[in-house]
Design goal:
The structure is a homotrimer of 301-residue chains. Chain A starts with 15 loop residues before the first helix and ends with a helix. The first copy, chain A, has two domains: 11-128 and 286-297, Aspartate/ornithine carbamoyltransferase (Rossmann fold, 3-Layer(aba) Sandwich), CATH 3.40.50.1370; 131-283, Rossmann fold, CATH 3.40.50. Chain A has helices at 16-29, 50-62, 81-92, 107-114, 130-144, 162-170, 190-197, 231-240, 245-250, 279-284, 286-297; strands at 40-45, 66-70, 97-102, 119-124, 151-155, 177-181, 201-205, 217-220, 256-258. Helix content of chain A is 38%, strand content 15%. Chain A is an alpha/beta fold. Chains in contact: A-B, A-C, B-C. Chain B binds chain C through residues 38, 40, 42, 66, 68-70, 74, 82-83, 85-87, 89-91, 93-95, and chain C through 33, 48, 50-51, 54-55, 57-58, 61-62, 71-72, 261-263, 269, 272, 280-281, 283-284, 286-287.
Chain lengths: 301, 301, 301
């Protein structure tokens, strides 16, 4: 398989074979030094996303590459349309690979269309964030030794959660049993759940304790206040959806808890030191996974 | 010729021989790697200018050098006078070369006076932006094979256009025929045109179609709404000064269209794919030209 | 002595022997190249501090290391508590050493407690800024050849001056005679002066000319308008506490004037060219001193 010159825009663009191939490359590439010597990455963050940006830049630099870019777009108006295209075309002549984070859905695809060099989507609005999905998959693979035949729970805001939507799609050929646990108002979109049902066994519920003893992995997500009309509703949900030591006692001994971070109270800090908590490892995995992706699209893997 | 330790503040400081020497160095230097190993550039952007900053930083890094700096000055008050001098003196001890962009005319010169290391002006207000002129000249040289005896049109806002003023000056010893095409209200300043007439044949007009068939190069510039008292006047001018396929049909087959970017509608996107359009190449040339300038002032060319 | 993996949070954590050891390492380490090859520093500036940030980044890069980070925290709310801890834990997995600047007292200590990698305090509010103290000590050592038995004056705002408080503490075992010169309203805190008196001879006065002929070093500090209730009081103090050529005539021939910068009029620019003025050298020393500190905590010195 050859990803040299390819763009990484959406996880949907990758087959099971490609996903497995890429994930298997990570451990090999993360030990390499200087394979991206002389290569230049443009890190174009049209909105701030500190952790994503820092892990991309760390990935590039650990392999000997260089970085130019910006961490925020200062202008009051979002750069879009023709202006965005001109900017991408100019930067495309400066750098060997472009990482773009932009608040507008579809912006990364547009960038990929006009750039000659490979473009990696670092998140385009509520749409796609494929490198997050790769690092989620890599984390599951490393902790369980396999991606096949797992029981995975998704907890929290499943309506708006971009990471959950992408991850469930990416798992479609791995025979995953999926458990969706959320308040009624934040359930997985019907359209999406109908799609998933075609390839995965699905269970939906509102109470985590109905399914906790079945889960190999629990993928928790942030529940944002802004999603609720009334603060009371938010507080009630927040009180129900929190992971603490009580929760762990009822779960499988080897359950692993993931979270894309930042959290806002869904996971109590008392769990941080438990072996079941792997959300910091998950965040750290952003670096080796992005090292692999950068090397692959730059033809140096 | 030896530029080691020299400042680059204004294009007026360079003779024809020096300009030619520098431009001829570009192709040699852009292939070098690591000649600026261990060298540190301070990139002091007291106002944002993303493309200029990124191309300077790309230039430094492609040659193996390092960069420290800032992309904007957060304080509400512009740093000037004694404060600016102290800042330059401090940073001068950190780095081997300073690139300064500052909204105030003359700031780069002041920086050059107090710094021991070479200072490169990345734009000081409406005054000077010499590396832009070098990349414009390099672009003309590469596309036409020579700087001598060309017919060059300048289109748009010629009153305030810093890039045009500097470029016309830089061309003074190359026997250029110059055509200035602008609305009456945005004509070249009389003082300047009188100076140019001493060394170049000059034609002024308001209608591009009066001269289009004579041009080897058309250098278009942005016409900004803010220059007009009445929006109607702006719209009328904008309607007249636009380059599209109709325009190309009437021009010489081998005309080359340049623009310092960003554009705001002066050049239709339909032209981007034409061989006559070289404004993206022009932007890309910012990197090799700045590689050459950095190497020269650092004594590594 | 081995500082590998150690945090640098407060100057109080270092013994005389350790301070001397570190300062003696500076000249050796500043000549080294590439000893931090492949090492990654996270530069987390939750508030802007351009000179401190640039000198840390210059230090890392001069030794061949890489830098990721941010220069300001854009959010309206200061990141603290659990959010700060999560951020540090995530970044700790990306980088080999963390430099943190944060407006809240105690934040660097918290970061050091949760990070596995070494943490260097780049200033936590009004509390500590240990690398500034190291560079002040190094400057004294280089200019006087010793830290022992010196007469050092401290001038200006001694009530709020973090740098003076730390420096006087660091000098406690060097048999320093200390002269504190300030307006009544900005005297050294009584508690602190009582502590210092246990190990150093101390003199307090309001008039610099009472002691000027005794000083080997005069460490001046900025007097900020905001410290005064009435502008008249500020102006009166400002008129008294200024160093100019008149002052120099009355001082010892070999007096050296230091200042942590930025200044706001306490030192006239006419003194900048005098051999007695060493405040720019002092600022420049930030780079080699931070080179030494980074190498030591990374186990590469």
């Amino acid at each position: 398989m050859n990803f040299s010159g390819k763009d990484i825009i959406a996880i949907e663009d990758f087959s099971k074979e490609e996903i497995v191939y890429i994930l298997n490359k990570v451990d090999e590439i993360k030990e390499k030094k200087n394979i991206l010597n002389g290569k230049l990455m443009a890190s174009l963050f049209f909105e701030p996303s500190t952790r994503t940006r820092l892990s991309f830049e760390a990935a590039m630099k650990k392999l000997g590459g260089h970085v130019i870019g910006f961490s925020d777009w200062k202008d009051s108006s979002v750069m879009k349309g023709e202006d965005l295209i001109d900017t991408i075309k100019v930067v495309d002549g400066y750098a060997d690979v472009i990482v773009i984070r932009h608040p507008q859905e579809g912006s990364a695809k547009i960038a990929a269309e006009v750039a000659n060099n490979p473009v990696i989507n670092g998140g385009d609005g509520t749409n796609q964030h494929p490198t997050q999905t790769f690092l989620d998959l890599y984390t599951i693979l490393k902790t369980k030794g396999t991606l096949e035949n797992l029981n995975i729970g998704f907890l929290g805001d499943l309506k708006y959660g971009r990471t959950v939507h992408s991850l469930t799609y990416a798992l479609k050929d791995f025979n995953t049993k999926m458990f969706f646990i959320s308040p009624e108002s934040l359930k997985m979109p019907t359209e999406l759940i109908n799609k998933i049902k075609k390839y995965s066994e699905c269970y939906e519920c509102t109470d985590i304790f109905d399914v906790v003893d079945k889960l190999d992995i629990l993928y928790a997500t942030r529940i944002q206040k802004e999603r609720f009309m009334f603060e009371d509703d938010f507080k009630r949900v927040q009180g129900t959806y929190k992971l603490d030591e009580e929760f762990l006692k009822k779960a499988r001994k080897d359950i692993k808890i993931m979270h894309p971070l930042p959290r806002v109270g869904e996971i109590k800090h008392e769990l941080d030191f438990s072996e079941n908590a792997i959300y910091f490892q998950q965040a750290h995995n952003g670096v080796p996974v992005r090292m692999a992706l950068l090397s692959l699209v730059l033809g140096k893997a």
